Amino acid sequence: MENRLVVHHVGGRTGSRNFPLMPAFEKDIINVLYEADESCISQMVENWNSRPSETVVLPYCLSASDGVGKFHLNYDPYTSSIYPLNPRYAQFYYTYPARNSRPGYDYVFGDTVRTMEEVQLATTTLDAVVLERGKVPGPDFLSLDTQGSELDILNGASQLLDTTILAVQLEVELHPFYEGQPLFGDICQFLTQHNFDFVDLRQFHRKLIPMRGKQGFRGEGYTADGEALFLKRPEYVETSASGVQLNKLAFLATIFGQFECAQQCFETNGFEVMPPLQNGATDQQPQYLEFISRLAAAVALLPQRSALLFSDIYTYEQSKSRFQVSAPQPALRTFVKKIRPLAAVIRNIRDLPARLKVLSNSAMIRASSRLKLSGSSVEALFLEFGMKEQYLLARRNRIQDGKTRPGPNRASLTKSR
Q: 99, exposed or middle or buried, with CB in 10 Å at 0-12, 13-18, 19+?
């Protein structure tokens, strides 16, 4: 097994990939890029020549099976697909504002996604490329941007989904822009069967508009598509003697801000700090493994979460009573409530037991407070490795949690009444 992180991206027409560029870890990565249009291959290779990561470009049309398929080359090559345009969406469009010297324009599907050429391409599966032909190592991270054929490619990678693949990121559609294409729900169902959790859907900023209406009467538009992220459940990761796969999943989860998933990896049987090098792997231990080892140690020293539970605040009877109509209050009670100083004294006496209970958790609260003042070792580690987004996320949530720690207010003392 390869100790470096193996990133496969399908649909990298310009040499792009969906995995973030991170200078501290780029030399730890093997890129495998696929593109069905062979005219793009030389540009893709050139784009990665100056990068420290190793890159392989393969001119394959990946699908659900080996065979021959029809490929539609469209007016805008970025929309080329094995699926033709769904005529229902021919009038739909996106707006693109002016940029620099380029004027703004309407991106109408019937104009841009129309087929200009149809070519027959040999198709193959990702399982066949990796497991039968041995062309490249199996992916740890798989990203897809293939204009509707994402589920076909996943079907052709079923064995890898159950073994090496730890994360899947792919473009998903909520409307069938192409005839016969699967939608987001179909992909969720398929990956759930392979023990992946749906983690995130980042909607693209553009909105889909159903027709070119009157000037001055353009509306909100439809939510049309986005980029979805799925992570393998740690308990289903195949662990080798070194446990390197759990290290890889922990790293991937951390990169995408899913810190709790990384902690689950640390606490899963088979996780091993700084696993030894595999036979045939590179001589130098990848930097990301050092990072994960130090992150696991830093997380182990953090205090347990101190926030109260819902059941700490409400008894079952109080929880049910939140939906009942309050009975009219006696006149004396109403009068006392109007006298604010007296009402406050009564409330403080009544709330005393709950205040004492809150103080019993003060050790955890003080630990959280100290972290707020000095910053945590986890945040320092993120900064050391140039991981600014992860640092900001950890810091923001730590400070937010500090603001929600229990205090002697009426909302947190309900259960004592």
A: exposed
Q: Residue 71's beta-bridge partner residues?
A: 119
The pLDDT of residue 72 is 93
Provide the number of structural domains found in the chain. 2
What pLDDT shows up at residue 112? Answer: 97
Residues 61 and 199 in one domain: yes
Q: Tokens representing 101?
A: 């010297």
- For residue 246, the one-letter residue type is L
pLDDT band at 96 (very low <50, low <70, confident <90, very high): very high
Same-domain status, 45 and 194: yes
Range of the domain at 197: 5-232
pLDDT digits (tens, 9 = 90+) for 247-288: 999 999 999 999 999 999 999 998 988 765 555 554 578 999
CATH number at residue 101: 3.40.50.150
Strand order in the sheet with 67-74: 61-62, 115-124, 67-74
Contact status, residue 77 vs residue 13, Cβ threshold 8 Å:
yes
